[in-house]
Fold:
Amino acid sequence: MKYYFLLAALFFLLAGCNTRKITPASYAGSATTAGYNADSLPAPFATGSAKNFSEVVGWKNGEMPIAPPSFLVNQFANGLQHPRWIYVADNGDIFVAESNTILKGILKLGASISRKIKTQHIGESINRITMYRDADKNGVAEKMYVFAEGLNQPFGMLIIDNHFYVGNTDALIKYDYTTGDTSLRQMTAKKIVDIPAGEYNRHWTRNIITNKAKDKIYIGVGSGTNVAEKGLENEIRRADILEVNLDGSGERIYAAGLRNPVGMDWAPGTQTLWTAVNERDELGDELVPDYFTSVQPGGFYGWPFFYFGQHTDPRTAGLQSPPPIEKVIVPDVSLGSHTASLGLLFYRQQSFPAKYHNGAFITQHGSWNRSIISGYKVIFIPFANGKPTGDPEDFLTGFVEDLTASKVHGRPVGIAVLADGSMLVSDDVSNTIWRISVKK
Structure:
């Protein structure tokens, strides 16, 4: 009953939210097609629900992702164990969270699926943060330090003043920190927020960012299940972006109904938060589009009852307390169905060509629930005055070796920018950090 009271209170807050006209890109997995009307989405179950897990074949010597002709790609670091997220400190130190999905009963999924999953090393998590330094600034890390161990599926990282924050799957932890530290001061650990990570923890990543004033922390908490099939009581404080003070007090739901909001960033020149959201599965090849959207404080984006605006998910008919459908906010940009769009950053540096300035880069970890795989690349969305000005376009590709056989070299996840304007992208199944820079 407590949950339903909180849900009703949330929907009351949503009463002032405005809906918007839909202007997304294609839902078909392409990053180059024009916008469409929301009614062009296919009906639920127009196709079957595929279980098409990619097989990771890795990169041979000399192979690497492909960037546009004016860019160079090189290997910044390798030999990690499932590098997920990247955080760059003001002094240039580079932190990489090494963590992974932990599954039970992998062998029960069937021989062929099990074999493909094993190529991605799912089920094992090193739970570590590694720190790198590129002392001579040649684009290759020379120094490596084990910064922290013994964490619980760490993901988001953040430095504010003299503290280092880590988003474990079950808690936000704060540590004492001094610029230049090469290891985390474990004895100073203080849990400041419990994060739900119970029996159902399908979306375990916890990204964290701060605001311009550095007096708030925002935590992306994905849903515990696909569409609340284990009950809404298991989804309290999930499918939300939470806002807390630096000491963990003052928690509020900044926005709700976001199935798995992972990447978060503020649009340059604005105070508007944007997020990349990994949407629901098992409605067919072309449902539901992942999306990239501005985040309205107090806004509701539909999960689990509705998808991509005012489309009712038929599987939620038995759930209690659905909100008024007219209060659901339509996302800004479609990113293709089942692309697993995760990482996000706005490019604030100047070394990339002008078209990329202030634009958004999004990593797509890649599908498992589509008969022909989608995602497995980094895309770019141009921006001006805090708004998208064009459709998504491919930026870093080459991760797919064989589309029809669902064979891939790697899967991009984390993304960060260095002080020289070059970009880092983590490839979690090839255990590599790639660097993308402009040709000189």
